Fold these 3 entries.
Entry 1:
Amino acid sequence: MKETFEQHIQQALSEFTQHRETLARVRGEMASLSATVRSKDRAVEVTVGAQGEVTALRFLGNKHQTMSGQKLAASVLDALMQARQEVLSRATALFGSVSGIGSGIVGADPEEFDLDRLLDAAGATARQDADQAAPAARRFGGSHG
């Protein structure tokens, strides 16, 4: 049995609602992403936020006091780059979890989306459903209109 136009619309609305909820959840998770990493020499700990911004910088123990400025800077940069990479990896995984959303409607190129064709197809389905229902309505004394 073919689905009616109304069933197609209900299914599309249901999928849209699910996708919207999923995207809202992912957006929230993206906004709250952070990573805390220690430098390889364990002298520095850096925390970065979702945009890679430094939100915390700690010097662990007193090791930094005996380091040259160049080594300390290298430790900070090392931890910073690792933390940013961690946030990027998590963001990539989150984006990957929603990468297929909407692909049933819009292909790889949004310019290819043809609303007129979609509406014509929906109208043809509705007309076809009505045409199939008409003989049954006449058999049972109903009217078609």
Entry 2:
Amino acid sequence: MAMSLASSSHSAAQKKYDVFISFRGEDTRAGFTSHLHAALSRTYLHTYIDYRIEKGDEVWPELEKAIKQSTLFLVVFSENYASSTWCLNELVELMECRNKNEDDNIGVIPVFYHVDPSHVRKQTGSYGSALAKHKQENQDDKMMQNWKNALFQAANLSGFHSSTYRTESNMIEDITRALLGKLNHQYRDELTCNLILDENYWAVRSLIKFDSTTVQIIGLWGMGGTGKTTLAAAMFQRFSFKYEGNCFLERVTEVSKKHGINYTCNKLLSKLLGEDLRIDTPKVIPAMIKRRLRHMKSFIVLDDVHNSELLQDLIGVRGGWLGPGSIVIVTTRDKHVLISGGIDEIYEVKKMNSQNSLQLFSHVKEVYSILSTFILILI
């Protein structure tokens, strides 16, 4: 049983940027927007954001190109957003892009930063004043109408309101989570369309117990070229978004030999907890870090592990550092690594038949383009 579908020519995987941020520099550049950008960067989202203060006609072609190469658009409506004709033209462009590609799930998410959404929607308050000033400056009637239409459409979309949050950090956390959710959904659907769903996929899928209250460690083994990494990546991409912490580490043994186990362990912990951690002795993880890990569900893939000691160094004995309901998938060429590591669920990845192998080979570049957005490259 197998399935393979061609992906859309406008797929999210083919976009250069995950998120495009439109904002009024003088309002939020040094504060909210910079903090938001930093949060998105920590989650490995490729974000287009233009911090240039001076903008002219020579910059516009670059901006148009960036808009066309973006999957999601985040519009930060602040007090003086509408006073900038640049921001208004930017909004018109991205709304047109969104409307033309509605079937491709290109999304616009408004963020109302210390402004009333009704002021944006109805062009009242500071937005009404700004548009009136533009009118006095003899702006073209057609352009004025385009601005009003774009403001109205964007303000009617579901978004985030700063007035409903006690702190900006909480708001940024929710925005980041929403963006990741939308992108995960798109990439996950594209991956399913490009991956060969053969007996290996369904066999491993059946091993995952989503209602489990224990830590599940699933071992995948087989000779090189059978698709262990691709299979693990498919599981990660399809299900990891449901977990508080998630991390996919490629070539674990190779990288650990090159940089040391401390390096690999810190990468894993930093990704799971969303912080830049520097622990000198990973085998003696601070109690507070362990406590946090045990209070969250995580989805982890450890790819190409050559010895069982690495497993204990990274996740503790039998995943003892992880919270109930967590899932760890380990890939290796050596079955004995899994047995000596105390892994109960072990699956031998079967080599695909020639027809499925040919189909997978024809799609492999696009599949890894999708997966690379979420796989943590260690070197």
Entry 3:
Amino acid sequence: MEFIRWILNNFGLFFGAIFLIYIYMMVRRMTALYDFLRLVPRCEDPGRPLRVGENRALFFLDGFFKRLSQSVVRGSGSSDAVIDAIWSEVDCRIGVHFTALNGYANTLILIGFAGTIFGSIGAFNEMFRGLAKGEASAMVFVTSWNNGLATALYTSLGAAAIGGTLLTLLCSRFLMTRAKQLETMVGLRISEIIEEEKSWPADVERSESPLKEPKIPGKICLPISSS
């Protein structure tokens, strides 16, 4: 509560409320990203086998993978549509958060710039009014600080600090690298399912077909000519 009260007192009611709302939305998006990317394994060995299998990081795609397996087995031609749906789901679960957080950072910087202009206008109005009335310089400074100058400076500082921190986190090794690694895992898992389901009927057919005995050519009897 003290933090909220400090934000509202120094940023102003309007800009303070906007900053608090944006901070809440950023934390919510970052938490959603962390819930997905924390399950992605750290594989730093370049010689590791490219095998994904049943991985916990892809739990939200289990239903899509089952549907893809059924489509490949039936050979109905709908596997391409299922693959497109898988990539759309990955974008909805992961990519949309990166896009939203980038938008939040850029918008927050613009809001900070607007707060700077708004606060400066209020501060200069109070300053000119105090000077016109012949008030002391100390009183003029205090009045202008409380009526706009604090809002101008704190909104600029808050926008720069929050926006810079957010962009740094988005480009960090944990978020960006693991997001790309998750996309790689999805592509490998799709190829595994297609290869497994396409090779399974051929293996069953070979195992069920009887072994054919090699043909032994029979003896050829040539007619004996009588002399």
